[in-house]
Amino acid sequence: MDKLILCFGAVSLIILFFLTYPFIALTLSADLGLIHRVWEEKVVIKALSLTLIAATLSTAILTFFGVPLAYLLARYEFKGKKLVEAIIDLPLVVPHAVVGIMLLVAFGPRTSFGAMLRSIGVVIEDSFWAIVAVFTFMSAPLLIDTVKDGFASISPSLEGVARSMGASPLYTFFTISLPLTIRSICTGALLAWARAISEVGALLIIAYYPKTINVLIIEWFNTYGLAYAIALTLIMLVISVLVFLVLRIILRWRK
Amino acid sequence: MIVVIDLHLHLGEFNLRGVSLNVPSGKYMVILGPSGAGKTLLLECIAGLRRPTKGRIIIDGVDVTNLPPEKRGLAYVPQDYALWPHMNVYDNIAYPLKCRRVPRVEIHRQVKWIAEELGISHLLHRKPPTLSSGEQQRVALARALVWNPKAILLDEPTASLNPALRHTAWRLLRKLYSKLGFTAIHVTHDLAEASALANVAAFMYDGKIVKQGSLEEILSTKEASMYLGDVNIYRGRVIDAHGGVVVVDVNGEHVAMVSNANIGEEIVFMLRPEEVILTMSKPYTSARNVMKAHVENVEPRGPLFLVEVRTERGLKIKAYITKASLEYLGLSKDREVYVAFKASAIKRII
């Protein structure tokens, strides 16, 4: 066999082992009785549903605002485009705790912006909306970049022909561009959703309460020890993997 | 009528440098030119997909330079056909009619009609990625023609077809043009394609229209002969067919060629200058075509000389000869010569 394949195969096995073994180790160390008890705790159900709802809402908000932005970036050249792209990617490199502080300083209830938001019932500190804000901020690059790449991969002639056949720009977007990018939008939304439910660093700063499942895992790890944290982690892991699999199947089916 | 006046656009290495063009209504214009000449850019500007930095585009007397594509009434068919892969063939063809809010019953009737015209009725439920290149081309033409646009703009529509399908596509375009009588601007770098389709032509080179007129006029330009080479292209009607050899009437001159064409059929054919023999007296030869002519022009072509002669019945023929032959025959302007070429030397284009 080719030496290159053997060599690269051996290296690949090491990294694959590193990625897979933690899942196996976590599963093997689970205490089924404890998981059952944990599952019956109201605080767990509450934290879990809060996490899932906030992640879903943040993904919906991102899709609504992110798709038009992704389209503009993919299709048009304008002054400051590089700056806009850099701003979108910034959350990928900013430490999570810093994001929490930034959001607090920008939109917290003691800021002028925060006061405006409070007047319409949105408080960005220790609230559901604070969680949604963190999720949206952290997930934005994943959705926008994925959808942007999706739009960019569509041949402009597909849209050009629609325009020449009599379609307005908006009709072209909804009948040609959007349907052809639906896989990228689903993928971006899936990545954004998965990124959101895994967030914890910024939440510890801006929204410790109400507790999301990840905050609860940290709290239980510190209070009750590893066994309780593992039980909670496994529940979270199973839900994440299930949703992930379902979405992958949907995407493959569409393809 | 489509009129383009002094169009300028700079787009990296592709440029339009003052393009002017007139396309009369109902004419099939072919713009010939090498790759990079700016043909596609010009078509995109006319379609409204690119905005020129200078110049005007006028369609049926209305200045459309600043109008968006959907307000121009032109159907654009790009080189890759741009069929929408998420719609089936029916929806692709119906799209321009839906944009115009045509009633559903009428859409159905028109799609059915154009699908029958193009022989694609059996494909209506299929998705474009499952079609062959030839089928995709026919669907793209159906979509462009179904809504009766002011003109169709065709960007190298046969570039992705193999040679056999290309000939079929030319015949189809000719049939559609003679039946529906649309205005077309068709860009290509293929001389045979231009010969098969054009009733007016233009040659584009380095971002400019060098010449507009009949194909013969286009081919007489220095730029065209530089790019396309010297070639004789004729259009005529078959008046006799016997034993695999047909006689074609080209403006009164009778040319014999090997072909299985039928009597009455209009054909386009090509004769390379290197296949033409010039003699000072009537040759006793196996060549089926021998004509008396006089020299109109002699000019050098690298190591050879191009001699342009005109027969007694007005047929212009280009021939290559060596310098030694030129001196031996003593050829000069107005000198009488005999032109001979074999029936098998002629290549039918369509």
Could you write a compact summary of the structure shown?
The complex is a heterodimer of chains A (255) and B (350). Chain A is an all-alpha fold.
Q: Total number of β-strand segments of chain A? A: 0
Which chains have the largest interface?
Answer: A-B, 18 and 26 residues
What would CATH call the homologous superfamily of chain A?
MetI-like
In helices, the fraction of residues of chain B equals 25-40%
Helix content of chain A: over 70%
Rg over C-alpha atoms of chain B, rounded to the nearest angstrom: 23 Å
- Percent strand of chain B: 35-45%
| Strands ordered across the widest β-sheet of chain B | 6-7-8-3-9-10
Total number of distinct structural domains of chain B: 2
Tell me what the structure shows.
The complex is a heterodimer of chains A (255) and B (350). Chain A has twelve helices and no strands. With 255 residues, chain A is an all-alpha fold. Chain A has one domain (32-254): MetI-like (MetI-like fold, Orthogonal Bundle). In chain A, α5 (96-107) packs across α7 and α8 (156-164) packs antiparallel against α9 (169-197). The longest helix of chain A is centred in the first third of the chain and has 34 residues, at 42-75. The two termini of chain A are 34 Å apart. The model of chain A has no long low-confidence stretch (mean pLDDT 92). The longest helix of chain B has 18 residues, at 163-180. In chain B, a hairpin with a 2-residue loop joins β1 and β2 (14-23). Chain B has two domains: 2-229, Rossmann fold; 233-348, Beta Barrel (OB fold (Dihydrolipoamide Acetyltransferase, E2P)), CATH 2.40.50.100. In chain B, the strands form four sheets. A six-stranded mixed β-sheet of chain B has the order 6-7-8-3-9-10, sandwiched between helices. Chain B has a five-stranded antiparallel β-sheet with strand order 13-12-11-14-20, covered by helices on one side. Chain B is an alpha+beta fold. In chain B, α2 (89-99) crosses α3 and α3 crosses α4 (133-145). Chain B has helices at residues 39-47, 89-99, 104-117, 133-145, 163-180, 191-197, 215-219, 222-228, 323-329, and strands at 2-11, 14-23, 28-32, 54-59, 62-63, 74-77, 151-155, 184-188, 200-205, 208-213, 232-242, 245-250, 253-258, 266-271, 277-279, 289-301, 304-311, 316-322, 336-341, 346-348. Chain B starts with a strand and ends with a strand. The A-B interface holds A 155, 157-158, 160-169, 171, 175-176, 179-180 and B 44, 47-49, 68-70, 72, 74-78, 80, 82, 84-86, 95-96, 99-100, 143-144, 147, 153.
